[in-house]
Amino acid sequence: MLAEFINLPTVGIENLFSIQQFSDFNLTAFDSTRAILAWTFVSPGEEILKIGFVRLKWYGLLIATAVLIGVNLSMRLAKSRQIDPESIADLSIWLVLGAIPSARLYYVAFEWQTYSRHPEQIIKIWEGGIAIYGAIIGGAIAAIIFAKVKQISFWQLADIVAPSLALGQAIGRWGNFFNSEAYGSRTDLPWKLYIPNERDYFHPTFLYESLWNLLVFGILMWLFIDNTRHHRLKTGSLFLVYLIAYGIGRFGIEGLRTDSLMLGSLRISQIVSLVNITIGTLGLLWLYIRQRNLPDVLDS
């Protein structure tokens, strides 16, 4: 089934055969590398099936899958930290209620020139138009309120949720692939994304970010496991590492995007990424250089 979505382009193979004919079948190392890495991504469409007015889309399925996997993982991680897993299940509801409206409002705010002319489109979230940074901001606010109400350390919760957040983003980014959106600039690299409407090839930035988030997830899980077995990380460290690691990757990948939310000539996501990197770095310095705990809801 994966072969339907990731195809080795026949054009690339034919070109290689042409090179062989004119060069006595001697391929350079560069040509051989291009042959190995030559993968073209072509979306099969955004819908899985449609029955009457019922439409099941890949994006929705992937987001739901990411949430379910994330909640299950976080509950397991909570148990290893002697925190009631059921509290994480409760938190997940708060996170969804905080993240989705915030993700939409964030997007609409920076696309207000369009939505101000068509305000009826604002509530049509099912037609697309959400921002991950908006979701993170809304989720963080919901988690702070939840922690205050339940009298649980916010930073403890943030550490537990951070790996799931990175993994969820890695899964969710494939929704952009099926929707043929959030791609980069045009490219002739061996790996590329074909956009039917544009009839051209572009950087598969969805793939770059998905792979980067998988790397971040691996780092966070390694730190979490190592923390429980050998070293004792300070509370909040894991989430701060997430802010730095994701921020670095997003800043670089965002530079390739052609559909970035803008503030004048600046890309909003790059600005937010720099803010997150700064917060994460200052937080780690506060913990390990100043040797002080992060301010928490339990302190107020």
- The chain-level mean pLDDT equals 86
Helix content, binned percent: 55-70%
Q: How many beta-strand elements?
A: 8
- Residue stretches low in confidence (pLDDT < 50, at least 5 long) are 1-35
Structural class: alpha+beta
**Rg (CA only):** 22 Å
Model description:
- The chain has eleven helices and eight strands.
- Residues 1-35 have low confidence and may be disordered.
- The chain has helices at residues 10-22, 29-37, 58-80, 85-110, 112-115, 132-150, 154-172, 174-179, 205-229, 237-254, 268-288; strands at 6-7, 40-42, 47-51, 54-57, 192-195, 200-202, 262-263, 266-267.
- It is globular.
- By secondary structure, the chain is of the alpha+beta class.
List the helices and strands and how they pair.
Blueprint: E1 6-7, H1 10-22, H2 29-37, E2 40-42, E3 47-51, E4 54-57, H3 58-80, H4 85-110, H5 112-115, H6 132-150, H7 154-172, H8 174-179, E5 192-195, E6 200-202, H9 205-229, H10 237-254, E7 262-263, E8 266-267, H11 268-288
Parallel strand pairs: 2-5
Antiparallel strand pairs: 1-2, 3-4, 5-6, 7-8
Helix pairs in contact: 3-4, 3-7, 4-6, 6-7, 7-9, 7-10, 9-10, 10-11
